[in-house]
Amino acid sequence: MNVSKATDSNTNSPMTEMFSHLGRPCTVPLIFALGERSYNANIRELRNSIDMSDGKRLSESTISKCLTDLTQIGIVEGTEHAHSPPKAEYCLTSTGQQLYRHLLQIRHLAERASSEPNFLDSMSAC
C-alpha cells in the first residue's frame, strides 16, 4: 500500500516528530550532555563533552542546528548573551529534563542488556 505523506494522518503527530528528532545522530548525545550539567552550556562546551560511539566529533554547526531544532520543539532553551563575540548558552527545559530521565532509563536497560546476556530473554515479547 502506497500512502503519500500528505494523506498520512500520523505524519505530523507529536510522537512521530519526537522520534524523528531522536533518530538524528546528534540528538540523544546532546540531550545527555545537557542533562548532565547543572549550568547552561555553550556550543563549544557541549562539543567537548559529547562522545560519539564511532569516535568522531560533531561539528559546531551540526550541534547548533540540532540545538535550534530542539529549541523549536521545546526540549532545549537557549539564552543569548550580548558579549563580544555574541554567546549563546543552552539548557534543557522541564520537558527536556523529563525526556532526559526517560533516556537514562533506556541507557540503563541497554547497559544491562550488554552486561547480562540473558537479560533481554527474560523480558516478555509482545
Describe what this molecule looks like in 3D.
The protein has 126 residues and is mainly alpha-helical. It has one domain (15-116): Winged helix-like DNA-binding domain superfamily/Winged helix DNA-binding domain (Arc Repressor Mutant, subunit A), CATH 1.10.10.10. It is built from 5 helices and 2 strands, in the order ααααββα. It has helices at 14-22, 27-35, 43-49, 60-72, 94-115, and strands spanning 76-81, 87-92. The chain has a two-stranded antiparallel ribbon with strand order 1-2. Strand 1 and strand 2 (87-92) form a beta hairpin. Helix 2 crosses helix 5 (94-115). The longest helix has 22 residues, at 94-115. It is globular and about 55 Å long. The model is unreliable at 1-8 (pLDDT under 50).
How is the topology of this model organized?
Blueprint: H1 14-22, H2 27-35, H3 43-49, H4 60-72, E1 76-81, E2 87-92, H5 94-115
